[in-house]
Amino acid sequence: MRTKTAKEIDRSKRGLLFKSEDIKVVFSEDETTGNYLKSHFIEGESSFNLLFFLSPNINLLASDCGTHLKFKKNQYILHYSSAEHRAELWTENQDVLKYLQIQINYQYVFNLIDPNSNTESTEILNNMKNNSFIFLHKETPPNMTVEMHMILKEISGYSKKGVMQKLFIEAKIIKLLVLIFEQFKEKDNSDDHSKTPEAIKKFLDENYHKNLKIEEISKILGINQSKLRKEFKEHYHTTIVNYISELRMLKAKKMIINNQIMIKEIAIECGYEYVQNFTRAFKKKFGVSPEKLRLG
């Protein structure tokens, strides 16, 4: 193992930036001394831990569950730990190991969010405890925003001590939490947006036989009419009206072969109030009237 130069020693930093009864902020920056460098951090009992990964290719092994994760530069996680445990960090290929840990006492967050005040607060705290703020998409940790970077820089560069430092650090941590909640909320909205066409199709598949207008579908699904039409057509390359008509005609064709069911009954079953409208739509679709198709 090689010996560090004076310059390398100067660039190896690990220190406590702030500590109070409820919050601890630790910054670590180390250079590889061999093939790889290992470090570790402690997650306290009943605590939330914000880990910001500030160098590339950081591996994390959690001792409590044996989970191994790998992070890119500028990713982060918000993790809840019910019991104290140790986690190992390491990097490879002569990379620098650089990260910042913010540990927050559970009771502090509980008092801050006040889950008893409203359902949104309850949901946020439950998501935090269930570690819903680790992966933004499937197994991909979220990326730090520019504003998060600025806050970390302000935290690490703040020089005042005492009450002023405590108030400053707490304010910045609250801002970080707000940014995290907003980032994940945007992700949820994006997911909901991507599922909109599927939700519309599911509703139509289950209700095509009813005499529903676009306005009624819009109100039931809580989607405005223009968005309803646009997203369905973009996703399925047909209009809602044409899709409903297609479903009705396919059902009608199956029912026609049953001679015991009257044409009028088929029309009503397929969502047509007037048999003339049904006959017209059927002939347009299949080139023959329902009666002639039945007769062969």
Automatic annotation (TrEMBL):
The record's listing under Gene3D superfamilies reads: Homeodomain-like
Tree of life domain:
Bacteria
User: What keywords are annotated for this sequence in UniProt?
Assistant: DNA-binding, Transcription, Transcription regulation
List the Gene Ontology MF annotations in alphabetical order: DNA-binding transcription factor activity; sequence-specific DNA binding
HTH araC/xylS-type domain location, by residue?
198-296
Record-linked InterPro entries:
Homeodomain-like_sf, HTH_AraC, HTH_AraC-typ_CS, PchR_regulatory_protein, Tscrpt_reg_AraC-type_HTH
Please state what the protein is called. AraC-type DNA-binding protein
